[in-house]
Design brief:
Blueprint: E1 6-15, E2 21-27, E3 30-36, H1 38-48, E4 53-57, H2 60-63, H3 69-76, E5 83-86, H4 92-100, E6 105-108, H5 110-114, H6 117-126, E7 131-140, E8 149-151, E9 154-162, E10 167-172, H7 173-183, E11 187-192, H8 204-213, E12 218-221, H9 227-236, E13 241-244, H10 246-249, H11 255-264
Helix pairs in contact: 1-3, 9-11
Length: 271
Amino acid sequence: MTLTKRIIPCIDVDLNDEGEAAVYTGVNFEDLQYTGDPVEMAKKYNEAGADEFVFLDITASAEGRETMLDTVSAVADEVFIPLTVGGGIRTREDIKETLRAGADKVSINSGAIANPDLINEGARSFGSQCIVISVDARRRYDEDGEYYEEIDGESCWFECTVKGGREGTGLDVVEWAEEAEERGSGELFVNSIDADGTKDGYDIPLVRAVTDAVSTPVIASSGCGGPEDMYEVFTEADADAGLAASIFHFGEYSIAETKEYLAERGVPVRL
């Protein structure tokens, strides 16, 4: 049986000047612009036929604060599809509280790199299906990596970053993906800092490098400019899910249009 490819809208949430949760959209993790209310957007995507929904608190890790669980709970009340929540999750207790607030899965990046045993603890306590390891990757053109791809005639590796892409770690993305899988991660969420917000397409070499290395489902993120980019990441990089933000947020394409485009071209999707 062929598994259907998932179409997943994502909201990046931060606190505004009044301390209230708001959705922002940017380019390369910078130049953030106000986009809307997280609860209203969640409700819209639930009704639009999204397969899942991702809520990312984009400054919780960098600011060393906890995820905005009140907002997560309000979002969870509006969505009846799997909800993944990320940002500021550093301990087993953080995982527990986020799931208790209504999340079906937690997305962990900085916390897992700082303490890889958190993956084991989370999978053992709550099940691998709840643990999504998020990778904020950037291209490096030097000799410090482990796994290399040939891109436009140059040899490149992908580095894991933390704190919303603000800090490099020296850790090779492919090496980390393999370790995360071994430790019990149920999914891998692959973000490209280089492609983020550009609408120039997903970073196919990055996604393909990860899907070739692991059997864990991979969610491709960053750079989607339209249904054709999702088609490419599904057929050229074998991603299990395509995540997008701005093309849906600003009404350039709908979830239904995207799925119809893919279905017409033989990609299995839930209509």
